[in-house]
């Protein structure tokens, strides 16, 4: 018996080692399969998930990381964030932790929560600065550089590129190649064309020499964009055609769409209109995904000019309207990203300023004690300096608070419609509710939901849907009173809060809006369709202690309007 136990004692570590080794192999196979055959990967994932109780922490972290990647791929960003939190709870491997932060950034971008995305970027950057492993540090900087470029934070991407190149010192050809291209695009978007040209030239030569042809093609496309800005169309054409061959070999759809759009512009300017149409139509046929928004906007303008040349004026106008709608989407998205970046940057600067102020206060107290002990006669002078310093700091803090309040105000606005967002609108309405209660007045609520809005998106595209939402918001704004609070509750749903207003007047206002919606001229969107809405109206009762029951009754009335045939007003 002792002999058997002894054998088990010596064999058990090997058994566990073999189990760990086998699971590591299965995890590696799963990571590989998910990239090539997602359906087969799902089967492998389920099998490994069933074994999760016997996985060690790092294996569990790898499994959750794979699950987070799965969720991101299918657009379940909220679930991905939960999985990434699980990774960070158990992971000890720095590469996994770095990946988890970067995938969190990706998820927040997917949710259009750019403020949180920048916060995660800043956290990861602070972690990376402490790394001793050069290879891991370089890899982390590369990931951060790519995200800053995606977020249009070009000053930050330029800073990270320069730090990456300085740290690498050409030890890693991959890092040097990517760093140069990142620096080139940062300079290009900052309109530093001379610096960008020099960097792209160096990047193309270096990447080609070290067999990074795909990255070299990106550098060549950057040079073409500069030549396009300088009206050097022949040079730009040659560079774009060379880059296009590389992108086609790799089937790199993201860059293919941008290169085809630029080739459409180039061929139009050199009067090769048939070729310009060919490249423009390739881009125009792409899905209406956000990654294709910029190239689609470029070719919409080209197609408009081509149609105009051929006397197809109605078609030219429709393309111009589409280009304008896409342009507004791009501008709005850039504003949201810029506001998020400035908010995070401002908060970081404010924390640093507060820390410096504490240090200064501590130093002043120490000096004050020294002066009181050694030179009592100088107390008046010290007091004068102290008062001046406090006054100066008060002015600085006042300016900082004013700036932060400005950012907060921007964060209250829905970027697409210009109305209050749900949180800000309801908060302001709750404040008005308190005033109404104090003065024993009435408050009415109108809840609006556009009819068959999904059909507009499906039939004419999301750009037309966004045009419709903005037009509806403008119509509501034209009809509302100065005291009314209007907000976008989400999607195609809006609310109007009307302090000191009874339900009969609110009902009349809703009827007017219902008619106004149906009379919106949609041909300016490039398509012909009808916009209608269903309206629910409610007001304050003696039992209401907050806005919630009023909103609920208005919602119920809205559902009744839907069930009765839509395009009507129902009051509750």
UniProtKB/TrEMBL annotation:
| Range of residues in the leader sequence | 1-17
Pfam families noted in UniProt? GGDEF (PF00990)
Which leading EC class covers this enzyme?
Answer: transferase
Name the SUPFAM superfamilies for this protein: Nucleotide cyclase, TPR-like
The record lists the organism as Shewanella electrodiphila
Translocase is among the record's keywords: no
According to UniProt, the name of this protein is diguanylate cyclase
Q: Which UniProt keywords apply?
A: Membrane, Signal, Transmembrane, Transmembrane helix
Which InterPro entries did the record assign?
Diguanylate_Cyclase, GGDEF_dom, Nucleotide_cyclase, Rev_trsase/Diguanyl_cyclase, TPR-like_helical_dom_sf
Catalysed reactions listed for this entry: 2 GTP = 3',3'-c-di-GMP + 2 diphosphate
Q: Carries keyword Signal? A: yes
The EC number of this protein is 2.7.7.65
In what residue span(s) does the GGDEF domain sit? 441-572
Q: Where are the transmembrane segments?
A: 380-402
């Amino acid at each position: 018996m002792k002999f058997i136990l002894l054998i088990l004692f010596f064999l058990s570590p090997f058994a566990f080692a073999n189990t760990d080794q086998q699971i590591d192999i299965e995890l590696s196979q799963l990571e590989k399969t998910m990239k090539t055959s997602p359906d087969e990967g799902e089967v492998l994932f389920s099998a490994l998930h069933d074994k999760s109780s016997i996985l060690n922490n790092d294996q569990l972290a790898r499994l959750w990381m794979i699950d987070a990647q799965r969720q991101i791929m299918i657009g379940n960003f909220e679930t991905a964030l939960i999985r990434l939190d699980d990774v960070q709870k158990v992971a000890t491997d720095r590469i996994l932790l770095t990946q988890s932060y970067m995938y969190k950034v990706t998820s927040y971008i997917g949710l259009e929560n750019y403020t949180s995305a920048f916060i995660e970027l800043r956290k990861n950057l602070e972690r990376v600065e402490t790394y001793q492993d050069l290879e891991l540090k370089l890899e982390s900087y590369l990931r951060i550089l790519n995200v800053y470029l995606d977020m249009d934070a070009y000053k930050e991407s330029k800073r990270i590129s320069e730090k990456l190149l300085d740290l690498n010192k050409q030890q890693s050809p991959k890092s040097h190649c990517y760093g140069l291209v990142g620096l080139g695009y940062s300079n290009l978007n900052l309109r530093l064309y001379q610096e960008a040209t020099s960097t792209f030239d160096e990047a193309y030569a270096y990447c080609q020499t070290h067999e990074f042809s795909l990255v070299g093609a990106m550098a060549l496309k950057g040079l073409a964009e500069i030549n396009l800005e300088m009206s050097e169309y022949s040079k730009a054409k040659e560079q774009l055609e060379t880059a296009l061959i590389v992108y086609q070999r790799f089937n790199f759809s993201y860059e293919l769409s941008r290169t085809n759009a630029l080739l459409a512009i180039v061929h139009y300017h050199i009067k090769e209109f048939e070729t310009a149409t060919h490249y423009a139509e390739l881009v125009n046929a792409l899905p209406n995904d956000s990654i294709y928004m910029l190239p689609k906007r470029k070719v919409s303008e080209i197609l408009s000019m081509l149609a105009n040349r051929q006397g197809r004026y109605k078609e030219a106008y429709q393309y111009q309207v589409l280009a304008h709608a896409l342009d507004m989407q791009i501008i709005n998205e850039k504003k949201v990203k810029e506001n998020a970046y400035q908010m995070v940057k401002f908060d970081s600067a404010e924390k640093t300023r507060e820390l410096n102020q504490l240090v200064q206060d501590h130093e002043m107290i120490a000096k004050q004690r020294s002066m009181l002990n050694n030179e009592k006669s100088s107390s008046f002078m010290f007091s004068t300096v102290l008062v001046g310093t406090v006054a100066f700091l008060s002015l600085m803090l006042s300016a900082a608070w004013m700036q932060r309040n400005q950012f907060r105000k921007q964060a209250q606005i829905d970027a697409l419609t210009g109305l209050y967002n749900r949180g800000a609108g309801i908060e302001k309405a709750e404040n008005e509710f308190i005033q109404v209660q104090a003065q024993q007045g009435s408050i009415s609520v109108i809840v609006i939901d556009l009819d068959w809005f999904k059909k507009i998106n499906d039939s004419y595209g999301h750009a037309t849907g966004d045009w419709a939402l903005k037009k509806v918001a403008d119509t509501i704004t034209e009809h509302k009173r100065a005291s009314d609070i209007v907000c976008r509750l989400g999607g195609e749903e809006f609310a109007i809060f009307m302090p000191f207003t009874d339900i009969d007047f609110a009902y009349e206002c809703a009827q007017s809006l219902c008619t106004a919606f149906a009379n919106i001229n949609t041909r300016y969107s490039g398509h012909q369709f009808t916009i209608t809405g269903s309206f629910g109206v409610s007001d304050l009762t003696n039992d209401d202690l907050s806005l919630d029951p009023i909103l609920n009754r208005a919602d119920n009335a809205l559902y009744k309007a839907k069930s009765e045939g839509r395009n009507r007003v129902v009051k509750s």
